[in-house]
Amino acid sequence: MEQTPHDLRQIEALLDFYTASGVDCFLGDEPADWFELTSRQAAERAQSPAPAVQAPQGRPPRQPDAPAPAPAPASRMPAPEAGPQARQPAMAPATAQTGAFGQPGVLPDREIIEAARDLASSAATLEDLRQCLEAFDGCNLKLTAKRLVFADGNPQARLMFVGEAPGRDEDLQGKPFVGRSGQLLDRMLEAIGLDRSSVYIANVVPWRPPGNRTPTPQETEICKPFIRRQVELVKPDVLVFLGAASAKTLLGVQDGIRKMRGRWMTYPANGGEIAAVATYHPAYLLRSPLEKRLSWRDFLAIRQRLNTNA
C-alpha cells in the first residue's frame, strides 16, 4: 500500500520521539518484564564490589565499599539519609529517576509544583525569570529538549500571544513560533499592521516535548507558575491564547476552541484584569485552511481592541 505524506510525517514524528527519548536499539518481538530485570540487576550489583567514585573537588576520593550482603526485606531496610541536594526539590528533587541520555529525572509531585511557584514568584524581571528556568530541574522535558524556548518579541508590547509548547524548529533556534506555523503567524500579524517587534510571544511549556507530543497535565502544572509570572511581568493590554490548551491552562475554562474562540474574556493579573481572547493555533490553520476566515475576524477584533485602549 502506498504511503501518503501524512503517514510519512507520523513515522518521522515517531522516530523523532524515540531518538529524543534515548532509544538506541530495535524493540524485540517479545515483551520484556522491566520490573523483573531491574530487580535482578539490583541484586547483582549488591553482590558485586562497587567501583570507586570520583569525588567532587575539595573532597578525597571514596574507596570502593565492601561487598554488600544480600538485600534485606523492604520493611528492615533503613531509609537513605537526605543530603543537601534532597532538600532543594527545585534543583535536584529527592524523588529522582534516570531520564533520557542518562541525566537524572524527577517524579513530578506537589513538592515540585510548590518549588516552581516559589521560584517563579522570586523573579523580579523577565531576565530573572529566564535564569530561573535555566536553573530549574523540576521538569523532565528539560532532559530531552535541546534548549529553553523562553520568548520572542518586545517585552514592552501591549499584545502578548501564548501557545502551548515549542516544536522541533523552536527547539533548535530557542525561539517560539519560528517554524511553518510561526511563519503563518507573522503573515497574520502583518495583515493587521503588526510584526514581532510590536508583540510578545511565549508558550505555557518552554521545553519541547519529545516527538512533539502533547505535554502531560503534570508537565503543564509544573510550568504554569512560570508563564503566569511571565504575563505579570510583561503586563500586556491584550492577551491572546493560540489554541485551546493555553487558554484552558491559564483561564481554567473547559470549552473547546470552536466554542471559545472570538469570545472576549478576562485574565486576572497584578491585582487587575487583562482583556483576553482565544483563537485558532496557526498549526491548526495549516491543516484546516478554511478556518482562516474565522481567525481573520479574531485578529480584526484584536486590532480594534488595541486601538480602543490606545
Automatic annotation (TrEMBL):
Catalytic activity: Hydrolyzes single-stranded DNA or mismatched double-stranded DNA and polynucleotides, releasing free uracil
SUPFAM superfamilies the UniProt entry points to: Uracil-DNA glycosylase-like
Composition bias type Low complexity, residue spans: 46-57, 73-82
Organism: Roseibium salinum
Superkingdom, taxonomy of origin: Bacteria
UniProt region (Disordered), positions on chain: 38-105
Coiled-coil intervals: none
This protein's record includes keyword Glycoprotein: no
Enzyme Commission number: 3.2.2.27
Species lineage: Bacteria, Pseudomonadati, Pseudomonadota, Alphaproteobacteria, Hyphomicrobiales
Protein name listed in UniProt: Type-4 uracil-DNA glycosylase
